[in-house]
Amino acid sequence: xxxxxxxxLLLLGDLIFLQTFAQNLDSFGAKKISNPNQINxxxxxxxxxxAGDSINAKVLEVRSENIKVVLKDGRxxxxxxxxxxxxxxxxxxxxxxxxxxxxxxxxxxxxxWKSKDGKVLRGKIERVENNAVFVRRTDGRVVPLxxxxxxxxDLRVLEIYSTQKSLMNNQDLEYILGMHKWRDRxxxxxQIQLEFSQTGSSDGRKILYISHRNNGNLMKVxxxxxxxxxxxxxxxAGNGGNDVRWKCPKSKNDRKALVSEIRGFFNYxxxxxxxxxxxxxxx
Length: 283
Description:
Blueprint: H1 2-28, E1 45-48, E2 54-62, E3 66-71, E4 76-80, H2 86-99, E5 111-114, E6 120-129, E7 132-137, E8 142-146, H3 152-166, H4 170-179, E9 181-183, E10 192-200, E11 206-214, E12 217-227, E13 232-236, E14 244-247, E15 258-260, E16 266-268, E17 271-273, E18 278-281
Antiparallel strand pairs: 1-2, 2-3, 3-4, 5-6, 6-7, 7-8, 9-10, 9-18, 10-11, 11-12, 12-13, 13-14, 14-15, 15-18, 16-17
């Protein structure tokens, strides 16, 4: 009996997920199209507006928010997708979903999501939690879409989204750099320390506080720093002789470390290294 009850609850959970997704799509106005692959958008057919009007036209181009069509008399029109009937909107969205390049998705804009049974919905990712993605529809409402009923393409999109979300931009790097003092060692025997401020420097960068030990004496120098492309950090002491570029973490999952791009023996304030100089956050 317990086993039967378990399978019953499991089946009930699946039905609830399916019903939730279907309700989200139905309330949006999406309808399942029996044979969408048999409909050629690029041949003349009747298109209906949301007001009930109809025109006979052939699609020339499908864009993100409108379609470009040509009438039989040769006139060309641009029609907002939102002005089409719900079924014609679905036709366009199915086409957009099928032809979407997953490597060029802008996650700041809405995209088309599709369920395994062919229903579609347009919305932007709000957040991803557990086994569902929460999507903000074009009407502003946020709805959950369970992973288990999305198409393989949509699941791949979620993987790409998770990867991109973990990447650090300059704003993330500036925050991390300013949170710590960066040293060559985490114990009291460190020799080099960098502190990154947000105060502007005279050379147009930001002020860098450099501390280094030379023959047992602690020396302090003011320099400057700036972030360049590809997560590269540039630091300068103002004399040109101690300018260094550092590789920064590219992902939030990477080890927090600054790795100098200089290999071999080099003198950085009297600190000679036989390999890359690596700085890590203080404890």
